[in-house]
Structures are given as C-alpha cells and as structure tokens.
Design goal:
Layout: H1 3-9, H2 18-25, H3 28-38, H4 41-52, H5 57-64, H6 68-90, H7 98-103
Helix pairs in contact: 3-6, 4-6, 5-6
Length: 105
C-alpha cells in the first residue's frame, strides 16, 4: 500500500482546490462578519451580545427585552444556523440539505 493509499483510506480527499484555499486564507474576522451579516436580526443580536460583548444571558435578555429562556433558544438556533452558513459560505462543495435549510426557519 502506498502512502497515498494510506492517506485516502484515512479520509484525505485530495489536494485543496483554489477556491477552498482562498476561503482558508480569509481573515477570521471577515468570516465572522459575513456569517453574522447572513443571520436574521434577532439571532445576530443575541450572538453579538453574548460573544462579542461578553454579556451574560440575563443581561442579554434585559437588553433585548426577552426572557432568559428565549435568549437561550435564540442563541442555540443562531449557533446552529451560523455553523450551516459557515459550511455554505466557505466550503462550496457542501450542499445544504432541505432539512438543514428547513431547520433554520
């Protein structure tokens, strides 16, 4: 077995395409901004309060006039949606399934 066969058996998918390489080289802050821009307003606002401003759940809820439970639900959905967007925006080979898209509504 050649070393290439061993790599392929281990899950290596071959050399990175030029488009994927550009995505890897993009500054992380630009990626975060693109993902945040693509989120619905309320999801974006929760993530900004929680992770960029470092506010606790209670203060985020107070600032947004929501319950703490509602903030937790929105945060969960926002993180799930952001992960899907990251795949769509920065991994062009990934195609979102209907279920993934439907889950974000």
């Amino acid at each position: 077995m050649s070393s290439l066969d061993a790599l392929l058996d281990a899950g290596w998918e071959g050399p990175i395409e030029e488009e994927q390489l550009r995505s890897l080289n993009q500054a992380p802050s630009q990626k975060v901004q693109q993902i945040l821009d693509a989120l619905p307003d309320k999801q974006r606002e929760v993530l900004i309060y929680r992770f960029l401003l470092n506010l606790p759940i209670k203060e985020t809820a107070d600032a947004m006039h929501l319950t703490e439970t509602n903030v937790k639900v929105i945060q969960f959905r926002a993180l799930k949606h952001a992960a899907m967007l990251e795949q769509q925006l920065f991994n062009p080979a990934h195609k979102a399934t209907n279920q993934e898209v439907g889950d974000q509504r």
